[in-house]
Amino acid sequence: MRQSYEVIVMKQSGVYQPGVLLLAFLILIVGGCGPKSTRPPTHKVSGVVTLGGRPLEAAVVTFRPTANQQPANGITNAEGRYALTTFSRGDGAMAGAFQVTVVKYGRPDQNSKAGSSGSASDGEENYVPVMGPTPEPKNILPRKYADASSSCISAEVQAGQENTFDFVLDE
Questions:
Q1: Which of 13, 24, 98, 149 has the most CB atoms lying inside 10 A of its own CB?
Q2: Residue 18 in 3-state DSSP?
Q3: What is the value of pTM for the model shown?
Q4: What is the four-CA torsion angle of 73, 77, 80, 81, rounded to 10 degrees?
Q5: Which residues of the chain have pLDDT under 70?
Q6: Greatest pairwise CA separation for the chain in angstroms
Q7: Burial letters for 69-83: b for 16+ Cβ neighbours within 10 Å, e otherwise?
Q8: CA 31, 37, 42, 48 torsion: positive or negative?
Q9: Element (DSSP H or E) covering residue 154
């Protein structure tokens, strides 16, 4: 006796098989009913950051909330342009007031003991690898821009508006 299994909806003596009905019911119920987004709305935010009149590349721009919003971040490109992200890439920031911080991290001091005798990327034979804990990255911008309480840069993101904020930083 040969048994065969088929994955199509079959009628057996005029009645649908119970397993097939249950599967069809689950597909209909679950298939189009994904979780609704509970995220609050965000609004596109972009701008340019300059330092000493020149675009500032690879700086992290952070909008820190002053109320019940989520923070938003962006990284500047070679032209100093940034676009903020709160939940997904480039979605912007929630409406409201923010304190703004800007930091740019440089490489650890090249005159330090670990890096003083060449580097692997230079192809030098006398490279000495870093031993022990990795040094913390150093912010190369003036400290006042890194702390929301001393930054004195603020922004108000508005719903339905073009939210462009250019920041001119002093050295």
A1: 98
A2: helix
A3: 0.66
A4: -60
A5: 1-37, 107-124, 130
A6: 87
A7: bebbebebeeebbbb
A8: negative
A9: strand 154-157
